[in-house]
Specification:
The protein is built from five helices and ten strands; from the N terminus they run ββαβααββαβαββββ. With 191 residues, it is an alpha/beta fold. Helix 1 runs parallel beside helix 3. The longest helix is centred in the first third of the chain and has 12 residues. The protein is globular and about 50 Å long.
């Protein structure tokens, strides 16, 4: 069965974007970008909220035509265009680039999607991630902690009334100081 993998970058103080929705503090260098290309190219599909999808769609479809793009960025443009995408949105009518728009997160439909053949499913977007976590649909978390304190903005995890036990399955430190923390759900975990 395919897994749903939450893959997000976060500041050391727990924010995915600054107070004005800025992400310029992300420390994505060549090594980290190559890693992202490798990881995302293995996914069977990307599951995003509207905001994340529109952010990606505003740049990546034609990034490989920009002479200023690095070879790694150009490679990612092709990966992003080609990979199937499911966008959860109540307002987006349609989208190009191999994208399906779904109105609501229906847990039974997501579980059926996990049973389909293909690679794991990459999950992005804080609000969508919160919904998937609330419905116990996230199997793995890949959190990229950037060595920066931004002091405020959108937290990766909203307040919740439930405890979610996780098990650390791996770490990786990149040359730019970003640290990948890999966790899986640990239903029997003790606190």
């Amino acid at each position: 069965m395919r897994k749903i993998v939450l893959m997000m970058s976060v500041s050391l103080d727990g924010y995915i974007e600054g107070p004005d929705h800025e992400i310029g503090w992300h420390r994505v260098d060549e090594e980290l970008h190559r890693h992202f290309n490798e990881e995302i190219s293995r996914f069977g599909a990307l599951l995003d909220g509207r905001v994340t999808h529109e952010l990606m769609a505003a740049y990546w479809p034609t990034a490989d035509q920009d002479p200023a793009s690095t070879p790694t960025e150009a490679e990612f443009a092709g990966i992003w265009r080609d990979i199937p995408k499911i966008v959860y949105s109540r307002t987006l009518e349609r989208s190009d680039w191999n994208t399906t728009v779904v109105r609501e997160v229906v847990p039974e439909e997501v579980r059926a999607l996990k049973e389909e053949p293909g690679g794991d499913l990459g999950l992005g977007g804080a609000d969508l991630a919160a919904t998937f976590l609330r419905h116990d649909l996230v199997d793995e978390l890949r959190i990229y902690v950037h060595p920066v304190l931004i002091g405020g903005g959108t937290p990766l995890f909203p307040k919740a009334d439930v405890l979610t036990a996780l098990r650390l399955t791996g770490t990786r430190t990149f040359g730019n100081g970003v640290v990948l923390l890999r966790y899986e759900r640990d239903p029997g975990g003790q606190v």
